[in-house]
Amino acid sequence: MAATKMQGRGPPAKHIELYSGTYFGACALGGVMACAPTHSLVTPLDLVKCRRQVDPKIYSSNISAWRAIASKEGIRGIFFGWGPTFVGYGFQGGGKYGFYEAFKYLYGEQMFPNTNKTIIYLGASASAEFLADMALCPFEAIKVRMQTTLPPFAGNLREGWSKIIAKEGYGGLYKGLYPLWARQIPYTMVKFATFEKTVEYIYKTLGKPKESYSTLQQTGVSFLGGYIAGIGCAVISHPADVMVSKLNADRQDALTSFIEAGESAGKAMSRIYGNIGFAGLWNGLPVRIFMIGTLTAFQWLIYDSFKVYLGLPTTGGH
């Protein structure tokens, strides 16, 4: 059916047919717009988080870290790694949101119409993230190596890409794929399922149908639901996030690649866990809670605002 104009001020409906190829393409574009700039803007937090995960003693606090970096490298140094972040999370955001909407429709409307909605949200988000991470992984590997090695492994995305390909081939870009899946799939399952259920609960608590509120009010609900979902995302995915940072930054010695020649990802993770222990998997968690909560809230705000601009309904609360 055609999307109808929602209540509240806004542009005329663009008459994009729901669940059409154009609709899913629009959702993917909204995901790019939501994820690429937001992840890039929190690069200063991500930079310090990654370095403290790899070496907890490198900085005494986040403030001291930014002061130390700024004194040596200026503002550019604080945003070091924004290039692979912007490109990687742009691809990942497009895949995550676009495929989520597609799988949610496929599972919920076509294949398992009578299944509990929460199960549909979890399955759709896991499927979407599985595919989206294949696009993210090369850029995440470059970003983490740039941010966690001193002096930096590379000065920019192009240099980092060339160095890894020259030394390790294209496989070097995907050495962190399994731990990336371990981090991102639970993260995204919590992100989407918690968001959907939180928004549903908010409207139920307010006591009126979603459609009775203006688009501004609906996007406000999206922001609140996104922040609540982001807190859960940060906690459940943090151990794997630490492992991704360690895998991409760890070196057996200064002359070898970040994983010993012939060492499998599983063996490398076992070795790293033996060094840092369970407690080490939680290094940098407070920073990540703040970062991911804010990040997720603004992503849902941007994504649903874009959908409203196109005359489409906001996510959740149906």
Write the layout of secondary structure elements.
Elements: H1 21-41, H2 43-54, H3 62-78, H4 82-111, H5 117-148, H6 157-168, H7 177-206, H8 215-249, H9 265-280, H10 285-309
Helix pairs in contact: 1-4, 1-10, 2-3, 2-8, 4-5, 5-6, 5-7, 5-8, 7-8, 8-9, 8-10
Task: Characterize the structure shown.
The structure is a single chain. By secondary structure, this protein is an all-alpha fold. It is built from ten helices and no strands. The protein has helices spanning 21-41, 43-54, 62-78, 82-111, 117-148, 157-168, 177-206, 215-249, 265-280, 285-309. Helix 7 packs antiparallel against helix 8 and helix 8 (215-249) crosses helix 10.
From the structure above, extract its key features.
318 residues; mainly alpha; 10 helices; disordered N terminus
Helix content: over 70%
Instruction: Tell me the Rg in angstroms.
Output: 20 Å
How would you describe the oligomerization state of the chains in this entry?
single chain
Instruction: Kindly name the structural category.
Output: mainly alpha
Largest pleated sheet: none
Number of strands: 0
The averaged pLDDT comes out at 86
Question: Uncertain regions: pLDDT < 50 for 5+ in a row?
Answer: 1-9, 251-261
User: So what's the overall shape?
Assistant: globular
Q: In angstroms, what separates the terminal alpha carbons?
A: 16 Å
The percentage of residues in β strands lies in under 5%
Series of secondary-structure elements, N-terminal to C-terminal: HHHHHHHHHH
